[in-house]
Amino acid sequence: DYICPYSGKSSNAVETVLKPLLTSPKYAGKVKIILRPHPQPWHASSTLVHEAILAIAKVAPAVVSRYSEKLFKAQESFNDIPAQNVSPAVKRAKLAQLGASRRVKDLLQFKSTPNGGNDVTDDLKSCIRYSRQNSVYVPPTVLFDGLIANDASSS
């Protein structure tokens, strides 16, 4: 079962990749997958991209996987060199447009205080705190029962 930690709702975001594994007799009903975005601070647009994913997860958790596919197709425009002269406000607008939702755009807008962040800032902080307390520095990092499983990696 995949639960979005920000909406508390189930999602099909990992259905095509993990569902076959999770429904096997070995793991069926015993494993819960919780995805927590982990921005890479050395990439300037990473925080903005992860904010957008959190906004989508709040608005429509069932479409996180489709949004992620769109994001992967458009990722080069958010990479460091192509995005270096694009303001954060414009990047957020482009990310919201990929989600095709006015609500996503609203969630990514700054609050009224000068340093108040937006409506997903607290969610992003929660993800980062969780990562820090568990010594997560690079994605993907997999924890099983709260312990880092080093055998699961992007390689």
Helix content: 40-55%
Task: Look at the structure and name the CATH superfamily.
Answer: Glutaredoxin
> Could you tell me how far the N terminus lies from the C terminus, measured between alpha carbons in angstroms?
25 Å
Average pLDDT figure: 82
| Overall domain count | 1
CATH architecture: 3-Layer(aba) Sandwich
InterPro entries: Thioredoxin-like_sf
Protein name: Thioredoxin-like fold domain-containing protein
Tell me the layout of helices and strands:
Blueprint: H1 15-22, H2 46-59, H3 64-74, H4 80-83, H5 88-99, H6 102-108, H7 121-133, E1 143-144, E2 147-148
Antiparallel strand pairs: 1-2
Helix pairs in contact: 2-3, 2-5, 2-6, 5-6
Structure description:
α2 (46-59) packs across α6 and α5 (88-99) packs antiparallel against α6. The chain has a two-stranded antiparallel sheet with strand order 1-2. The protein is mostly helical. Residues 9-16 have low confidence and may be disordered. The protein has a single domain, classed as Glutaredoxin, CATH 3.40.30. 45% of the residues lie in helices and 3% in strands. The longest helix is centred in the middle third of the chain and has 14 residues, at 46-59. β1 and β2 (147-148) form a beta hairpin. It is globular, with a radius of gyration of 16 Å. InterPro entries: Thioredoxin-like_sf. This is Thioredoxin-like fold domain-containing protein.
Keywords:
single chain, Thioredoxin-like_sf, two-stranded antiparallel ribbon, 45% helix, Glutaredoxin, Thioredoxin-like fold domain-containing protein, mainly alpha, 7 helices, 155 residues
